[in-house]
Fold:
Amino acid sequence: MLKSIAVMTSGGDSPGMNAAVRAVTRTALHQGVKVWGIRGGYHGMLDEDIFEMQSKDVSDIIQRGGTFLGTARCKRFQTPEGRMLGYKNLVDRGIQGLVVVGGDGSLRGASTLSQETGLPIVGLPGTIDNDVWGMEYTIGCDTAANTILDAMNKLRDTASAHRRVIVLEVMGRSSGWLAMVAGISGGAEYILVPEEPFDLEQICENMKADYERGKRYILMVVAEGAGKASEIGPIIAEKTGIDTRVSKLGHIQRGGSPSVIDRVNASRLGEHAALAIISGLSDIVFGFNRGHVVSINLHDAVTNKKQLDPSLMRLAKVLA
Ligand code: ADP
Structure:
């Protein structure tokens, strides 16, 4: 049994990270284990921004987006010297294990740190992109998808009023999951994702036919990994002659109070992570599969590429 652990958030923030840190902290304290918070991701680990946490330190945060611990991208951690310094800073405080909440980059760093130093590490997938291999859900993806859906509902009103094509660019890095689920739930006519090649010329022909059949407006969702709305929009306008506008939600997608799903899932994953690290487990990341919490090998999670569910892509086409 470990007696002292640390928890941190890293990489892009996502709604629900706070719920995860809260659950890790309170579960560990409940087990009589000391918990340290690391501020500002791997930066804080290297700069010794590390503090011991009590239950009250995680009060009043479950409803907040972002991460109260702060997060960062840290170049120094990508060097063996940087990681060694981080490890030393943890050992100096008697910290015996670490929970890292972050995206695939952060988990990759965690995996390397564990391999190089032997420090027990358990990961939690914290990213709105839902792109971590081996699991169907990552903390924050539900809130982000709902934020996009809310924007789509509003864009639909104005698209309809003006008989426009609206091209909405959404986040997701190299994954099309956010675009796909937001597009399906928002009733988009076209969804462009990096996982599937598309023919813009053909799409423009289809749009003209859509309008000739009496369609009043068209919503297109573009995953950032598939292209830029600012480039696709003008091509559609030129080739179809239809009034076209583009919209890019940007960082709004990362923020906001976490949804019920993100709060509950993050809390459940946080509890599992704390119990696992305390019992001496390492090199695993917890996620959900078919609604159940599962542990995935950390190395497998960061070396494999998650695929977009083909049944979602098929459904989007049938319903469009
Ligand atoms: P995310 O975790 O959201 O995917 P990044 O990819 O920016 O975000 O990763 C966050 C941080 O994790 C980086 O700034 C770096 O400190 C660390 N990191 C990412 N990839 C590696 C790697 N291959 N080796 C070591 N550290 C890494």
Notes: The mean pLDDT is 97. The radius of gyration is 22 Å. The pocket of adenosine-5'-diphosphate is lined by residues 10-12, 42, 73-74, 77-78, 102-106, 108-109, 112, 127 (CB under 6 Å).
